[in-house]
Amino acid sequence: MSKDKHPTQPGRRAFLKNGALVLTAASLNPSQLLHAEENAKRLRFGLVTDLHYADKPPGGSRHYRETLHKLEEASNQFQQDQPDFIVELGDLIDAASSVDVELNYLKTVNREFSAICKNRHYVLGNHCVDTLKKEEFLGEVGQEKSYYSFDRDGFHFVVLDSCFRSDGVPYARKNFQWTDANIPAAELEWLKADLNATDKQVIVFAHQRLDVNNNHGVKNNAAVRKILESSSKVLAVFQGHSHQNDLNEIGGIHYCTMVAMVEGSGTESNGYSIIDIEPNGTIHLNGFRNQKDYNWARQA
Ligand SMILES: [Zn+2]
């Protein structure tokens, strides 16, 4: 990391817990040991949210055009830190007057985002499917599904889609109120079965919030939390949508809301993060610019 602000060295404990590696380390000098520790296996991913890219003048505190420059800074950091994958937590674009113009916003911002890393995950935000249909957004970014899961290095990751009205109709073409975010019955059933089927610790990615009951919350988030909690496998939920740093711990799960990239003018108002997970489930969130840092030890 070029930004030397890790409160602890990621990977150190994992490395020291491994008897074979400790034996090897005994024959290394201090600088070799440090290098070996840095290379010790731990999972790393990059996170950005609420980019709202659009080629239009600022609206209030949202500087749509500046997102490209801010994303370039995040990209440079990610090139150095080499995450295993990157996640975009929703609202990648902002509204345009037509479908074609909005697709062009998406092409422009995704050209830069997709250059960062070949393993990418896109969470749908309300602004992603305001004018566009879900299949149009997903088709453009090359992702098959709006909700799904994947495994990486001993951990299980779940991507949720809360862009459904309370009657179950998917968001598209301005057919919804942004405050009416829901996870429909079929997705809840899928989530329950998906968590049942894994023996790994789980991280969840969502756009709309699962931890609050105001306008930024998923309306049926109590039902979602119940499924997450009863699995006893979920370590943390990373979410966006309300554009501010926030953290709630509910039922032993960290609900961490990430700062929005679009907010404020100038590079100093940027926000993005690198997250390291040790094999024991300890999480280190290294936040840049306006994004807060967190360190959560896995409780036994
Ligand atoms: Zn947003």
UniProtKB/TrEMBL annotation:
<dbReference type="InterPro" id="IPR006311">
    <property type="entry name" value="TAT_signal"/>
</dbReference>
<dbReference type="Pfam" id="PF00149">
    <property type="entry name" value="Metallophos"/>
</dbReference>
<protein>
    <submittedName>
        <fullName>Calcineurin-like phosphoesterase superfamily domain protein</fullName>
    </submittedName>
</protein>
<dbReference type="GO" id="GO:0016787">
    <property type="term" value="F:hydrolase activity"/>
</dbReference>
<dbReference type="InterPro" id="IPR004843">
    <property type="entry name" value="Calcineurin-like_PHP"/>
</dbReference>
<dbReference type="InterPro" id="IPR029052">
    <property type="entry name" value="Metallo-depent_PP-like"/>
</dbReference>
<feature type="domain" description="Calcineurin-like phosphoesterase">
    <location>
        <begin position="43"/>
        <end position="244"/>
    </location>
</feature>
